[in-house]
Structure formats: C-alpha cells, structure tokens
Amino acid sequence: MSLVSLKTELRQDLKLTPQLLQSMEILQMNSQELLEYLNKVSEENPLVEQEDSPSLRSAYEELRQKASWIDGGLHGGTFAHEDSYVPERGAADREMESLTAFLCDQLDRRHLPKPLLALSRYIAELVDEDGWLTQEDLDGLLDLKIPQALIDQALAAVQSLDPAGVGARDLSECLLLQLARQDHVCPAVMDIVTRFLPELSRKHYGPISRELGLTVEEIQAAEKVISSLEPHPGRAFQPAEPTVYVRPDIFIVELDGEWKVMLNEYYLPRVSISDYYARLLKESDEKETKEYLQQKMQQAKWLLNSLERRGSTLRSCAEAILNAQRAFFSGVTAELAPMSLSSLAEALGVHPSTVSRATKGKFLQCRQGTYPLRYFFSRAVGQQGPSQQAVKRKLLELVRDEDPSHPLSDQRLCQLLSVQGIQVARRTVAKYRLELGLRSSTARKR
Questions:
Q1: Residue 1's pLDDT is what?
Q2: CA separation, residue 153 to residues 114, 137, 404 (Å)
Q3: pLDDT of residue 212
Q4: I want to staple 214 with a disulfide (CB 3.0 to 4.6 A). Which of 172, 218, 247, 427 is the partner?
C-alpha cells in the first residue's frame, strides 16, 4: 500500500499583511496614543510631514461657542504636539519597583532548576496588581503541553514568595497562604476561611456555629484574626498614579437643532507626504536611495489610508450609538436602550472585533458628561426587556429611597422591579447589587 498520495483542496486563508496590522493598531489607539504614534512615525519616516492647522483651531473655538460644555481648559483644548510625559530626573523606575520585578528577583535567588525557574518567572509575570492569579491563565499552560506536575511546582514556588498570599487564585486561598506562615493558628480560623467566608462577611454566625461547634465569641475572635490579613497582597507595590486627564475622542453635539457626531481631531497635526522627498524619489538615480524612499513612501501611504479608515469607522460607530441612544443624548431619559457590540457590528456590516477595537479605550463627551464609549453598550435583560444599565438605575433608586431601619431584601427588590414591568430573577438582582457596590440588606440596616 502506497503511503504517498496526491489530492486537490480548495480553501481560503487570511494573512495579516503589514498594512492590515498597521490599520488594526491605529484603529485601536485612543486620541492621545494616536498623537504619540504620529510623532514617532514622523521622526522615523522623512516622507511623513506634520503641520499645525490654524483652521482646525478656529473650528474648535467655534464649536466651543456653540457647545459651551466642551472642555476648553489646559487639558481639553491642548494643541501643542509634544510628548505629554517627561520622567522626573532622579525618579525611581516604576518597572524596577513593580510586584513582578520583586517576585522575579526572589526566584532568581532560589537557584531553581532552569525549567522550573523559567515557568515560575512566567507565572510571576501573570500575577495581577493585587497579587492574584486567574485559573484561566494556569489552564492556558496546559494548552502549551506543560506537565501538570511542573505547573504545580512552579505555582508552589511563586506562592512561597513574599508578600504572603501572592499567587492565590481566590480570596480563600490568599488568606490561607498567609495563615500558613503564622505560628499557633487556631484550626477554627482555617476552617472558617476554607468554608465559611461568605457567611462570615454577612455576619451569619449561626451556620458556622452549627457546623463547627463554635460559640459566637469564638467565631468573633476568629473574625478578628481574619480581618487582620491582607486580601490584596500586591497593594503595597501599586504606585501612586499621577492624575490622568481624559481627552474625548468624540463629541455628540446639537447644532442648529440637529444632533451630530464630531470627531475630536482638532488637536491632531495635519499629516501629509513631503513634496521634497516625493520629488527626490522621482529624480534620484541612486538605487539605494530610490529603494529606501520607495519603502518609506509605501509606509506613508499606508499610514494615511489607516488614518482615513480609523476616522470613518469611529464615526460610523458613533453615529450608530447616537441613533440608538438618541433619547439619552437629548435628555429625555437617563436610561440607555439595549445595545450590544454584536448588534452594532451587524448594523454596520463589519466584524464584531472591528467594533471592539474601535471602541476600546475611547471616550465620548456629550452634554451629560464624558463617558467611556463602551458605556453605551448595555445588553437587554431577557428577550425584550430594558437594558442592564436601566435596571441598575432602578435598583439604585429603590435602595436610595428605602427605609434604613427596614432595608429591602433582594427578593423584595425583585418584586418591586416586577411591579415596574421589569422581570428579573433574585440572583440577577443580587448580581447587579454587588456590581453597584451595594451591601446586603443585613449590612445596610441602621
């Protein structure tokens, strides 16, 4: 039997060209990132020219006269094309003082075998700013065909580092890692942390007392020990961040009785192709010079094309948001209509990933304030119900108006929402309440 065979197969492959990659990167940039990117490109590519446009400045001032709520302060109306951050002389390097650097430095001193050290350093880099790991990140290591035994050894190595509790995957594990380093810890404390943290947070001592055979006084003593632990071991490494000023990417304004989308490109420089180098490309007889300029010319054309695509895509997304949330922008209601990324992508005839990139990290300023662009995407509750944002607003209103001595339980909130025509399950109410930072009825009682 022959092991060699021939067959014909028809298939389609998507290849990411440099032009497509550049277009995707530029689409995902917010206004400040785009400005920094243009400054960098103009330094590297002599064919890319930047120039200020006085007409844009005057157009911005004219827009501010028609919409006085648009920020015209130092950070809202800045036209200077310069880097926004200059490191202070003598200031410490934040990267060198980060939690990841601290963990890797400890690992390097352990003299671990090379495979274990490499995997331990990789896991240390997955630790978030609070010092926690996600199980999904660890599961991804199995997809890389890394043995489970080696993963367990590397995780144990990271969890043995300082600060105590680092590398935990949940709150219970974080607290247990800290208790394991203490002397003479009462077994009841370990049991409560392992099994009864939700009950302890709500001060429901009854179930704990029945299951563990403890008195209320013993439970409260254990609670005091547990409250002294640090649920976010990486917190000490979080630097004091400087104040971040948001520059809106989009304005939604009412001009002459008509609502319009205005891209905030007033501070960006005009980007064009240098006439001098374009002429030099045509006239030069030197092969190396001509090849170099041809390459830079192609890159400049890709840049201009990507900027045009970014503007048109961002405008299309903003106009679709305006049409869907017109009642919000006009002040008729503070509640959003249901809308999702996938429904907007379908309406625009583009892939959902395109809408995701176009809206990520972008901000929209309107008469009501400045919002992340993704704020306006709120899924419907049920098939034909209101948006999740609308339900949360109703929930906030009910809790705000409740009697502090008799706060509303989740079941009662569910019933009151039902009276208003909003059908949600009790567990959904509990989920939204937690997302809003509202405590349980027991904890709210005064």
A1: 52
A2: 13, 16, 51
A3: 92
A4: 218
Q: CA triplet 109, 143, 118: central angle to 5 degrees? A: 15
Residues 263 and 163 in one domain: no
> Do the domain assignments include residue 253?
yes
Per-residue burial over 213-222, b if 16 or more Cβ lie within 10 Å, else e, is ebeeebbeeb
Chunked mean pLDDT (size 10), the chain, 446 residues:
69 63 83 87 90 82 85 42 41 61 92 92 90 84 86 94 92 94 90 91 89 92 92 82 74 90 86 89 87 90 90 92 92 88 87 85 90 88 82 89 88 89 86 85 80
Range of the domain at 389: 380-444
Of the candidates 45, 56, 52, the residue with the CA atom closest to the CA atom of residue 22: 45
Instruction: Give 14's contacts (C-beta < 8 A, 6+ positions apart).
Output: none
**Tens digits of per-residue pLDDT, 90-106?**
444 444 568 999 999 99
Note whether residue 81 is domain-resident: no
CA distance 65 to 217: 66
Question: Same structural domain for residues 137 and 270?
Answer: no
Q: Are residues 152 and 44 in the same domain?
A: no
List Cα–Cα distances, 290 to 18, 269, 346, in angstroms. Answer: 21, 28, 45
Provide the residue type at 328 as one letter: F
Q: pTM of the predicted model, to two decimals?
A: 0.58
* pLDDT score for 2: 60
The count of domains in the chain is 3
- pLDDT given for residue 218 in this prediction: 92
Residue 120 inside a domain? The answer is: yes
Boundary-marking domain end, from 331, 351, 373? 373
